[in-house]
Each structure stands twice: as structure tokens, then as C-alpha cells.
Amino acid sequence: MCGIVGIVQKEECFTELYDSLIMLQHRGQDAAGMTICENGKLNSRKAKGLVKEVFNQQHFERLKGTYGIGHVRYPTAGGNSKEYAQPMYVNSPYGISLAHNGNLSNTVDLAEELFHSDLRHISTDSDSEVLLNILAHEISKRGENNPSPETYFDAVESTFNRCEGSINVVSIITDYGLLAFRDKFGIRPLSIGSRKNSDGNFDYMVASESCAFASSGYEHERDINPGEAVFITFKGEVYSRICVKNPSLSPCLFEYVYFARPDSIIDGVSVYQSRQLMGEKLAKKIQKEIPDDDIDVVIPIPESSITSGTKVARLLNKDLAYGFVKNRYVGRTFIMPEQKLRKESVRRKLNPIVDEFKDKKVLLVDDSIVRGTTMKEIVTMCYKAGAKKVSVASAAAEVKYPNVYGIDMAARKDLIASTRSNDEIKDFLGCDNLVYQSLDDMVQSVLELNPELKGVEKSIFDGAYPTNISDKYLEDLELKRG
């Protein structure tokens, strides 16, 4: 799960790219980068760190051009060094720079093909580098001096045929334009926005989430469809084509639960409204499973749980308290690259306000419980702050299966719900009551907001992967994450 953005506009685009990456920082904290094209020259900067750490005034002065791409990285495949920062680049054909959000599940086989059949060398074990070289090879096979949009669309079609997994891409074809595409299931979000420029024509932005548009005055036009490729020339001409057979939209359910910002619209569904609905449905389940006199106050875990937690408090007719102060200088612990770092950061990130806990029966509402180690620490904090009882409610169902579409969600044995019953989980957390949202209610919280949406990708909850995932791949992934 990374954040990607691409821009084609009349004026210099560094500021808009920078602002958009800031808006997408929640999708990746490990590294950031951008590549901007000016008169056939690619100007690039990428490094480990947050956006504000990677870019400064000298980069504003050096990274010139009117169209470019940007990336914030959350490491899920490949290593964790500077070499894995994106965008990545190959010089043939034309000069292509690419930023990728997602995860390929057949990277090893593709790397072998690239070496033996396509005669291309891969210098890292990054699936994004493999994807870039596959795309470049498919474009070069067409061998055109003046490629048309159809050339790129044919290459994307061949790329889709070769690659398995979740594939969201923004790329620059030097001196030709911006190429963006989304996999056949639309697992990761990708949207297009526009704004009118001083010539009366339109500037365009493609981004992982619609929240990236507002900071630069762009308006959300639509989501890119599953299996669709969009090509935007440096003159602002827009072309598009569906490049797969039988596309089927199944956006990732966990985007609505946790990853996406609440001010984003993904595939016609307001993330904020979906979390409100999850809160409403969770409250009804809590009423059935936790005695009313076991709850004095509802305390959501900041920040992605606040929307659903507020609804829970309202429907239970209980006091709502923001009982934790969040240190905003500690990033999202879930997307930190190491478990040890995640655990150490919990206490730095959250500090309880003792007055909201002392001698009270507390209901904690969190967006999800994955490993359980974070919630265990939080429950301990509550008791130390003087809580009489601590109940825990998760706005998400039990996470039982590994994610293979761009989320580094621990080895299956480390997913607390994969090997324990709810009573065993409650004992591990040390809480008095535990309630999980039902999976059906989660799904309906999304589908009810867009009747045209037929389903969602929910494999971490039910193990049903929409793409071809082999047992060998899952075994290798288990070893890698373990």
C-alpha cells in the first residue's frame, strides 16, 4: 500500500506534486520521490523519509517541468533501502519512469522471464522494478518511432496478461505523456481529477485517493475503472481504454476500514460515511453482547476509529471521550516496516488522559485488531490510568489471512484471530469484553452507499483471493514475513 500521483498541467508541477504527496503521506512513510519531465529531460529526486524530509527549496528550484509523477512508499515487497524508493526508471524505450501501488504475486517467475526471454536485468527484488521492465519490454516490442495511445494500451494489455496481483501505476513516457492504469479488479484505489487552466483548457491529476485533489484546486472527475488505462499527452489530450477481458470491480475493504483518509471518495463510496455505517452496525452488535452497565464511556482510538466510535457512543447513548492524546510526530504504527518498531511506538504515540479513565467502565473502539500487540498495550494503559473495566470493540471483523495485494499484514501465525477463539483473544488482550464487527455488516456498510458496487475484496477476512494465489506463494510469504 503506497501512494501515487501523476500530473499533466500548463504550469510547473512541483508544488502540486509535493502537496499531493503530503495529502497521501498516510499511505507510506518509508520513502518519497518524484520525477518531472522538462523538454525531454527527466528531473528526479527520491530518498528514504517523509515527504517534508525528502524535499526542500533546492529541489523546488531543480525539479522543473509541467508533467510528472510522485510516490510515497510503504515497504511490502523488496528491501527497505534507498534503492527501493520510487519512481523507478528505465531508459529504453523512450525513457520510462514508473510509480506503483500494489503487489505482484508472480514476481519470481516474471524476473526469470525478463532475464531469459526479454533479456532484461533486474537489480533489486522489487516487484515494482519487475513491473516497470515488463511494461517497457511490451512497449519496445511495438518498435514505433511515433507511438500512439493505442501502442501504450496494447502494451498495458500484454502487461496485464503477464502479471498477477494488484497493479496501480502512474508512469511518464518521456516527451509523450502520462500513462496510468488500474488492475482488472480495482483492488487499490485510483482516481482522476481536473481543473481549468489559464488557457481555458484542462490540467489533469491521477492519484491514489481523491483527497489529493483539493489542495491544488483539482476536482474529482471519476475513478479509473478496473482494467482501464488512461493516457494523457503533454498537451492535455486524454485517451482511455479497457485493457482486460471481464473486468470486475472489487475494491479493498480494508481501505474503507483503515487505510484511506475519511475525506476520500473511493469507487463512489464516501470513506467517512462507510465508517459511520460501520459504527452504527457495530453499536447494534455491542448492545447484544456487552451488558449496558459495563459501559460508562466510549473512547475511540485516534484517529481512524473516531468516525465509527462517535456513532457507537451516540447509538448506545453513552458519553463520548477522546481519552488519548495522539503524538502527531509519530507516524502510523501499522505501516511501520518492523514489528519491534511498531510496538515501541505505541507508547510514544498515545498517552491516556487519566481523568477520562479513573474509576470508569471504558469501551474502546478501534478500527481493527490485527496482531493484537497494539491493543494489548492500550488496554494495559487503560487499567494503569484507573479504569474499573475495559471492553474492546473492533469496527472490523477478525483478520485471519495474509494480505497479498500491497499490505504487509504479518505472517498468518502472527494474526491474532487466525489461531485463537474470541475468548482466547480477550484473555490475550486482558480486557473484560470483546466484540468484533460481523463481516457481512462491514461489507454492507460499503455496498449500501453505492448500489452499483457488486462486491469488495475481503480476502484478509475470509481467505477468498480474487487472483490466482498459489500455496507456494503463501508459504514463501509466510517465511518472509515471519
Q: What portion of residues belong to β-strands?
A: 15-25%
Poorly predicted regions = none
Structurally, the number of domains stands at 2
Number of strands: 22
Name the strands of the widest sheet in spatial order. 3-2-4-1-10-9-11
Report on the structure:
The protein is of the alpha+beta class and 482 residues long. Helices cover 33% and strands 24% of the residues. It has two domains: 3-249, Aminohydrolase, N-terminal nucleophile (Ntn) domain (Glutamine Phosphoribosylpyrophosphate, subunit 1, domain 1, 4-Layer Sandwich), CATH 3.60.20.10; 269-481, Rossmann fold, CATH 3.40.50. It is built from 17 helices and 22 strands. The strands form five sheets. The protein has a seven-stranded antiparallel beta sheet with strand order 3-2-4-1-10-9-11. A six-stranded antiparallel beta sheet has the order 5-6-7-8-12-13, with helices on one face. A five-stranded parallel beta sheet has the order 17-16-20-21-22, with helices on both faces. β2 and β3 (41-48) form a beta hairpin. α5 packs across α6 (149-162), α9 (271-289) packs antiparallel against α15 and α11 (339-349) packs parallel to α12 (373-384). The longest helix has 19 residues, at 271-289.
Keywords:
Rossmann fold; 6-stranded antiparallel beta sheet; alpha+beta; 7-stranded antiparallel beta sheet; Glutamine Phosphoribosylpyrophosphate, subunit 1, domain 1; 2 domains; 482 residues
